[in-house]
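Loading example: each entry is read as two labelled lines plus one structure line.
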Amino acid sequence: MYSLKRSQPMSVSDAPNSEQSAKIHLPRMSESEALKKIRHTTSHVMAMAVQKLFPKAQVTIGPWIENGFYYDFDNPEPFTEKDLKAIKKEMIKIINRKLPVIREEVSRAEAIARIQAIGEPYKLEILAGLQEPITLYHLGDQWWDLCAGPHVENTAELDPKAIELESVAGAYWRGDETKAQLQRIYGTAWETPEQLAEYKRRKEEALKRDHRRLGKELGLFIFSDQVGPGLPLWTPKGTVLRSTLEDFLKQEQLKRGYLPVVTPHIARVDLFKTSGHWQKYQEDMFPMMAEDEKAKAQEQGFVLKPMNCPFHIQIYKSELRSYRELPMRLAEFGTVYRYEQSGELGGLTRVRGFTVDDSHLFVTPEQLDAEFLNVVDLILTVFKSLQLKNFRARLSFRDPSSDKYIGSNEAWEKAEGAIRRAVETLGMNYFEGIGEAAFYGPKLDFIFQDALEREWQLGTVQVDYNLPERFDLEYVAEDGTRRRPVMIHRAPFGSLERLVGILIEEYAGDFPLWLAPIQVRLLPVGEEQYPFVQQVAAQLRSLGLRVEAATSGDRLGKLIRDAEKDKIPVMAVVGAKEVESNALSIRTRASGELGAIPVSEVLERLQSASKHYSNF
RNA sequence: GCCGAUGUGGCUCAGUGGUAGAGCACUCGAUUCGUAAUCGAGCGGUCGCGGGUUCAAAUCCCGCCAUCGGCUCCA
């Protein structure tokens, strides 16, 4: 902020409000045609520079993205960070040559001939997927690529000071891990150097919100190499946060007729053979534990559960069920284990052991639509209480060309139809994700972004006709016949771990009072106030509030600084005056100093804020 | 799993072939203090792990592990 203001001399048109003048509008791709042109052309300039410095490099694709652009190359050697510097230098040279960007329309045959002349096989593949007219974009007479455009008219329109090459990464050709691995260079480009500076500033801000960093700073969870990758350990503070979330949802579920259950973490392989996990989900599961070689050979071992559904199904199946019992909503905070590939793990958003706020609803076909809507209502209520607003709803359907699913077409169509009806009844905005379904059924997923704008699925509702079939589930209908229930799998949080990760970033560590691991810290001015502070702390604690007394002997300034850094929502300063008047001088993180307030009033306000998910 | 980068006290980081450092945290002592850091002393590291090169390795080489940015895959 500071450096930005300094680099931006005040002008007459600047708002007098300093905060206003420090803010620079960063255009989004959707609103700026100019950015698209800049990024397209910049990526071409980069590709030209790369091919100049690395003559063996082949060009593949290079689109603009939300914050910049990338280009994928096939090069015998991976690029290093040092290479990026050289490439940037070469790009500046190209830009300074003021090359005109020329659009040319060619026939398919002509395009093939030109590509063959320069020996770029990837371009031939790209060309095969293009519709006529085929357009080429030239940088002067130096370099060209297949491209739909648009572009700026001359490289001189690019500002080298508004361009940055950011990172290199491996990427598969056509996004297919069985195909060649290419070298991707990510870059960013803006209209002005000020926009680039603002982009960098926001990236740094985002880094400060990163839940991995805040989780460490606030002491919420840890990872231990000795325990293993992707297996978080929850500290006392983090556990308070987690259980507060659990309690909140349990309350909500109790109101809605959910029935709590508890099931084990492991089960026989056979259970997962019946469910289909062993056939369709095995590579996501930890290897089977077998008692001996014979058991191993016969696949008679136990496995850690990757999902809770087969267990809940067993409880449903344990008795003959009547239609009068349905919908039956079995709920459990069930911890599951999935063998995620090592490179995919990260913080709390992608782990190998996590707790799903899981429930399986067994319903009659007639009840399905209404019950589905009830679930969506619960999920939206939960998000609202957590103040989570920025999410997208995705209809996650199967990819009909894939064989990774179980069940009949008919079952799938019925399930997908039910989900579609629900979102249309609710008038929700949504998009479709083909190939995003679970192996047993389609889903309605709620997708959130983390601080670094990566997308994560949290809440989910799934309609399932397949597992009831595979486990031969039944209920006795009104007419005495045996019928098959439909299952709804649902998890509003998705997983406690991922939810906490997203919440930390959403709040930047500043949890609302009801979620804060420590809600109040009492700050005595001197040692004379220790007895009073201890007594008030005990009083608050007895009311279920989470409170700490800062009796380290440090001076008030230091205590306040520490409390601010720990992001404690309510600080209560106690000196001689407060002891005398039985009051607390309240300072909140949100609003600063509020002055002296009688202890009894503070108690009331804390309890009320806690109960109503609001601030002090 | 794949490509690249990184790994030094609890935390943040300096140290690039020759005796392991700083700040914060922690412990002790002094200070008794009113809204974002009181002063001083002390404790603390087989430099991720294993192997190699060298008279000598945190530093160079090889392998492994973990983390980070991507890719692929997902709650």
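Chain A has 21 helices and 27 strands.
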